[in-house]
Amino acid sequence: MLRNLVSRNVTPAARAWQPSTLPRLATSSRGLATAADPYDVVVVGGGPGGYVAAIKAAQLGLKTACVEKRGSLGGTCLNVGCIPSKALLHNSELYHAAKHDFKNRGIDVKDVNLDLTRFMKFKDTSVTQLTKGVEGLLKKNKVDYVKGTASFSSPTSLNVQLLEGGETSLEAKNIVLATGSEVTPFPGIEIDEEQIVSSTGAIALKKVPEKMIVIGGGVIGLEMGSVWSRLGAEVTVVEFLTAIGGAGMDGEVATSFKKILEKQGMKFKLGTKVIDAEKKDGKVFLNVEDAKSGKKEQIDADCVLVAIGRRPYTKGLNLEAVGIEVDQRGRIVVDDAYNTTCKGVKCIGDATFGPMLAHKAEEEGIAVVEMIKSGHGHVNYEAIPAVVYTHPEVAWVGPSEEDLKKQGVEYRVGKFPLMANSRAKTNQDSEGFVKVLVEKNTDTLLATHIIATGAGELVASSVLAIDYKASAEDYARVCAAHPTMMESVKEAMMAGSNAMGGKAIHF
Amino acid sequence: EAIQTLATPAVRRLCHEHSLNVASISGTGKDGRVTKEDVLRHAGLTVD
User: Which residues take part in binding FAD (chain A) (predicted)?
Assistant: First the structure.
């Protein structure tokens, strides 16, 4: 391969940020034979795993580059995932409250109307601010940001097709793959991102569909279904399994959550298999079949969201060339130090094992560069929270009751309904409960499952407690401010702790 | 010095209850923290 590399030492070293010194192959370049200094770390992918790894690496004094092909940093999360969906969830909740709930609270508003163009613009502004913010952080930490698509040319070098044209080659002592994931397609249903959309299309619809079908009752489907339902769409969720919420959600929580969403107007067809879809007269007709009885049915919608999952994305990396092993689900195989089967190459985030969560990837991003720097890093996979940002939110950390039963762990359940929480009652927002699972013998807190407004924030203290190996009593003996939702977690701990008599005060 | 031993409120409470010095118990928790389990085991109160 032709490598016309310009030495990085050409420009004075005094300048902190030297994008122009990146080795690149321009067609007009006269081409110096000097090889560039290798980077200590090159991170492939600028998502939550990648950009965090890059920043941390630079902070640890490692010479770092981050390669991203999207044209903006932040990856799926910031561009088409967490951030835009949460912007839509928040504002659709405000809209829905203004339209349906303000009156009960003594606030009369006339003519509540949706301006979808501005609604979407608000979301886009949040996304742009955050992605630009990450770019600023890379700059501040002196990470070289390379815009382009990387592929392996050897275990220590990557060829990058630059977005602006041309290509470059990056030499690295360590390569961290953080290439993320993509939408799992539904066999036989073609996504056009207009009528049949993935999550990417669902955050950018041009009008509120009258009828919307969501294929997949997991987190993404429920969140996007909530958004469009609040904006006026009649939403039906079709799920093959018999419960919603996806992997890890506690069974009791999932049942209760479904009831709450039904009360809000969402419909569910569980245990239902989608066969195929046809587009006709501006509508989509979905052929479905009851998984048990085999009874067939056709349902129609203006818009269908395919949200059956995400799969690792490793396209174009040329993994075969350097012998990086991928499992049958497309995940890059790693050991407990994130090493792939190619020496010097590590992998983190959605592209490898574990739950596909931004904060999980971030933790791994830090751990992986600490391992490169000092030989040890650590992620506690027992203490990674999961959050569904609907209203109310669902959040949990630790195993479900079903998991514990399977593992044969003896546990106690402590439960506290929000109906009995002062703040929830004050706000007239008291749907949900806190449920804690506590090891019977030692009182160790194993899991916290919450349905509540702000559950994603409420669960944080339980994550800390579990990471500290705290007992339910520990938590119950810590003072919670009054009136706050947090009191409900404290009271659930009282109810779950034998040492506290297994009783809450207010219930 | 007992005060230097990392332990949570429940652990200190349990130690008080059984007149144990928390510093005399070897911890298995994070950074050598004495967990409630450690105290129970030390006091022979847990079935393994």
Answer: 86, 179-181, 350, 356-359
Name which of A443, A469, A477 is nearest B30 (Cβ-Cβ). Answer: A469
| A437 and A464 together in one domain | yes
Does the residue A267 lie in any domain?
yes
d(CA A472, CA A504) in angstroms, rounded, equals: 12
CA distance A318 to A315: 8
Contact (CB<8Å) A473/B40 = no
Contacts of B13 in chain A (CB under 8 A): 473, 477
Q: What are phi and psi of A373, to 5 degrees?
A: -75, -50
Domain end marker among A353, A382, A411: A382
Q: What is the pLDDT of residues A328-343, one digit of tens each?
A: 999 999 999 999 999 9
Domain, as residue range, for A247: 196-308
pLDDT value for B31: 73
**How many Cβ atoms sit within 10 Å of the Cβ of residue A298?**
11
State the residue for tokens 């018999």.
Answer: A242
If you count residue pairs, one on A and one on B, with CB atoms under 8 Å apart, how many are there?
Answer: 43
Are A176 and A241 in the same domain?
no
Tell me, yes or no, whether A324 and A360 share the same domain.
yes
pTM of the model: 0.90
Residue A425 Cα distances to A151, A263, A431, angstroms: 56, 19, 9
User: ipTM of this model?
Assistant: 0.73
Q: Give the closest-approach CA distance of B32 to chain A in angstroms.
A: 11
- Give how far B14 is from chain A: nearest CA, Å: 10
User: Chain B residues with CB inside 8 Å of A468's CB?
Assistant: 8, 29-30, 33
**Residue pLDDT, tens place only, A31-81:** 343 456 899 999 999 999 999 999 999 999 999 999 999 999 999 999 999
Which pLDDT value is given to residue B4?
A: 56
A378 labelled binding-site residue? no
Residues A399 and A471 occupy one common structural domain: yes
A223 known member of a binding site: yes
For residue B13, what pLDDT is reported? Answer: 86
